[in-house]
Amino acid sequence: MKLxxxxxxxxxxxxxxxxxxxxxxYPYDKQINEPLIKELTDDQKxxxxxxxxxxxxxxxPKPKNKEDEDTxxxxxxxxxxxxxxxxNNWTFLQPLYHSLEYCVKCQICSDSCPAYIASGRKEIxxxxxxxxxxxxxxxxYIKNRPKLLLKITGSDIELNWQLIARLGExxxxxxxxxxxxxxxxxxxxxxxxxHEIRKIFSQEMGIAPKELHELGTVxxxxxxxxxxxxxxxxxNIIEFMEEEIEEKTGKRIKIPVDKEGADIxxxxxxxxxxxxxxxxxxxxxxxxATGINWTLSSxxxxxxxxxxxxxxxxIQLARIAIRHVEIAKALKVKKINVGECGHAHKAMIVVADRxxxxxxxxxxxxxxxxxxxxxxxxxxxxxxxxxxxxVTLHDPCNMVRxxxxxxxxxxxxxxxxxxxxxxxxxxxxxxxxxxxSGFAIMQSMNFPDWRSVISGRMKLKQILExxxxxxxxxxxxxxxxxxxxxKGQIRDLFAFYNLFDRCNIFYGxxxxxxxxxxxxxxxxxxxxxxx
Amino acid sequence: xxxxxxxxxxxxxxxxLVAYSLKIAKYLSLPIHLRWELYPIMHEENYRYGGSYYEDxxxxxxxxxxxxxxxxxxxxxxxxxxxxYLKSHCYYWFFxxxxxxxxxxxxxxxxxxxxxxxLSIKHIDVSLHGITEYIGLICFIAGIAGNIGLxxxxxxxxELRLYTSPFMYFGYLFYVILCLCxxxxxxYDDNPFLQYENFxxxxxxxxxxxxxxxxxxxxxLINLHLIYLPFTRAIHYITxxxxxxxxxxxxxxxxxxxxxxxxxxxxxxxxxxxxxxHIHTGKKWNEQFKMND
Lengths: 531, 293
Description:
The complex is a heterodimer of chains A (531) and B (293). Chain A is mainly alpha-helical and 531 residues long. Chain A has 24 helices and 7 strands. A 4-stranded parallel beta sheet of chain A has the order 2-1-3-4. The model of chain A has no long low-confidence stretch (mean pLDDT 96). Chain B is mostly helical and 293 residues long. Chain B has 2 domains: 2-253, Fumarate Reductase Cytochrome B subunit, CATH 1.20.950; 256-293, no CATH class. Chain B has 12 helices and no strands. Chain B has helices spanning 2-29, 68-81, 83-88, 90-121, 129-156, 158-161, 166-188, 192-205, 213-228, 236-248, 259-268, 285-288. In chain B, helix 4 (90-121) runs antiparallel to helix 5 (129-156). The longest helix of chain B is centred in the middle third of the chain and has 32 residues, at 90-121. The model of chain B has no long low-confidence stretch (mean pLDDT 93). Classes of the chains: A mainly alpha (531), B mainly alpha (293). Chains A and B meet through helix 2, helix 3, helix 4, helix 9 and helix 10 of A and helix 3, helix 7, helix 10 and helix 11 of B.
């Protein structure tokens, strides 16, 4: 296919068949066993534009008439123009400018993209595809280059509503893992271009996946959490957690909430409270056992570390980051510690570092070095033989490649898990779980199938490969993923492929392994029950 | 012809200098951006596995170990053997590598010739002719082979052809023609680089000298190439440095009262014109943060 085909009239640009997919190891080496991406219903096809690849992440409604089509085009162009101005996009203009101007299109980045490889190298998923479309649109419609020059420089492209709808969807076929950027010798960041396209849609056109915007950042600021947990519901959850801790461990722990002057304000991804309360409980058990002066917050957004703004909207990113530190400031804590959530790490500690000024610049850290200090310096008694099962570690991109926290989690696992084995590749060279940049929480129509079959396929392959010598369901195995969104994706991936039943591969966080090894807790903390 | 060639030569060198300066100035004048680093970061202590200072609980109070030298050596090493390409596409790497070697040698050749011309005014003979002869020969052969190889790759490989513009093909062909002309000149002219040095001495002393038709062609092609370069992405030699130091390896934390913080505060004072419903168009960045609906 040609690049200009993205704007052509076609029912569906790309179809992904079972024969296209990257092969998987045993027991998924026979494609007959494998589930595929569901077809959209006729109603969905009628209402939304699914002409890119038959998958809907955003679900952009089809324009009703020519006027609607023109409006879509005009708003897109208006956003594109603003994206290139310092006042509107000082936040990313320099990196964007570099990637737009200096890519030599050598395609060295292609082989690093898990979605591109897993799909059987579909051209639309190639890391350079979206940037090249954007580059051509800028040359023609923003720089207004003459026709002849456009022909010579290969920048001639027709902008229409169909192209815009497809480009919008295509921006959500990249997990922003930035592995492509890592391998580029010229420093080009094609992941960033996907991010910037998302910003045009959100910041100018008001179009974003519902789970990221309406149910994500907007709900978090209004209700308190993207999960919908209100402060009142949080109080009930904490009570439940305290009861559960007592039942599971025999320990009576009072979880501190809104404790003024605490050393640490711990903020979890609120998804943990909903889906993996054992993770938040494990933090409470460890902090209690070590006598750390800590607290949770019950303020709106203060108990949810997520910041989906990092994936699609700079203004929402800053609003949430500022909300988080304002809460810490009001509580007079010494610092914020972020629990096991990769993108919250990256958003709160790194990216938002350059919007937090003056008194808002409160110390923000990862919980992982603190946990490493506890484990390595034996501040609690631990028995590694309790974790004597095969364990592998998934590296969340936001925490590892994009933030450089690589060793603390490894030091803990090496110390506590005798059968620890690394996936290949790992560390900063890892592959995304397939749920990055919001994909893990996006449940729109058949998009969850796409992220299991395509974007998560490389991770599935890695997990199967690392456990290949113990793949039989008789051996229980553990994938440690110290990130809520990665866990969400791994949960969905495992459910899609029925991995727990077929191979007895379980998943969970890091702190669960620590508590599982605590000698003063009689029963195993990890329950090996699929939920 | 000589006077015209002299003016044309001056123009082309001034043109590329001005054009590149403008490009660099534009790049460097772009505003401070949010942090968007990518690990491994070469100046970090734990660069070997890609670790950052965030692995240390006391990073804010402890002293950071940063190595500028290591960063520069890393970039230099990649300039010299382009390891990323070698690892992934060794055949493509070969042609890319020799074409880059040719380009670098062409710069050296120019530098030696100009330096020789300049020094000869003062009757200083640094005997660079032997070196320039070899540099020229390697440059021309590598340039022809490398660029023909790249041209073929871009024509044959789908993933390259799809993204290659007529202008890029022209670039490969142009360089092949330039090198062919240089090679023919090297083979058939007597002491072509000594003549070339004399030509430059003439330019400096404003007394044009007569040169052979082949050298005239070569100089015209070199001049055209200099004018052509700013319209290509060849400046990535330089912008790559900025990309690494100012974006990919920019892990400078924002400290209260720092110069960095002042730049951020200034950026936050700008008014936004984004117009989605959740944004307050016309308000400043720092005002947006207080308005959540």
